[in-house]
Amino acid sequence: MRVVAFLLLWSWAVAGLAQATQAAPTTYKCLDAQRRVTYSNITCEKQGLQDGGPVAERTTSMPFTEPPKPAPSKPAVTPPAEPAKAPNEKPTK
Asked: Tens of pLDDT along 7-57?
């Protein structure tokens, strides 16, 4: 039983090591007749396109920026309140 467990763990480790050592896929930059750029993992010649030059292996990242704050909303227009009457004032007709 120990031998079977050892062989399973060993084969799992070897498979993981094989994946880790594989080279990254090559990216080709190709140009068509209208000079539009196409990026592919297939060579330009096989696609019937022209070679567009080397592609730099890089990772592009953007710095984090705070999202813009929403503009303050304008308060709804309310009609002006009627002036308060004094308690001993007589109503006008």
From this structure: 778 777 777 666 656 666 788 999 999 999 998 999 999 999 999 998 877
Q: Go through the chain and tell me how many residues it has.
A: 93
Cβ count within 10 A of residue 29: 17
Residue 85 tokens, joined: 């009457």
Instruction: Report yes or no: 29 and 52 within 8 Å, Cβ to Cβ.
Output: yes
Closest CA to 26 of 51, 63, 5, 4: 51
Q: What is the pLDDT of residues 61-76, one digit of tens each?
A: 778 888 888 888 877 6
d(CA 15, CA 8): 11
